[in-house]
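Q:
Just now I want nothing more than another pair of eyes on a protein record. Here is the record:
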Amino acid sequence: MDAQARPALTYTPHGGSRDLDPARIPAGFRAFRHEAAIGSGAERWEEAAAAVLAWGLQRGAGISVSTPRVVVGDDVTLTIPLLGVVPVRAYARVLELVDEPARRGFVYGTLPGHPERGEEAFLVTLDRDGTVRVVVQGFSRPAPGIWMLGAPVLRIVQAIYTKRYLRALTRAAH
């Protein structure tokens, strides 16, 4: 598909979720950061990073993903079972991979049709003491229309799925 024919991200500026840079979080968006320790050691960190780059957080939370691996520039469809029954499609674009000595993962931004507008970073970190953590951080707000009307419920659903993301790799450690 021609890059000009692709839909634009649903927010500006872009890129603020990787480091939760306040200057790059759009006005009116809510920033968030959640993390959980999921084990220790370089081997665990490598396993967790590989899982994140294969959509392991999303799949572990019960979300279907249209691509097998995280690839920068890919537009993906995530199918979220709302209330465990109703499939809600959420569209996103992978914006960047994070590949640092003690932090790996990726960032995606929302496309038209996603219930929210914003950006999320899905990261695995390795602390100096060897502790491995999964981190989900970003900024968001409900998309216009029906999603804006259901904003309180949407926040609850987002919190539920964020907890599931964190548990997805925690379970894998045991």
About this structure: The two ends are 42 Å apart (CA to CA). The chain has a mean pLDDT of 88.
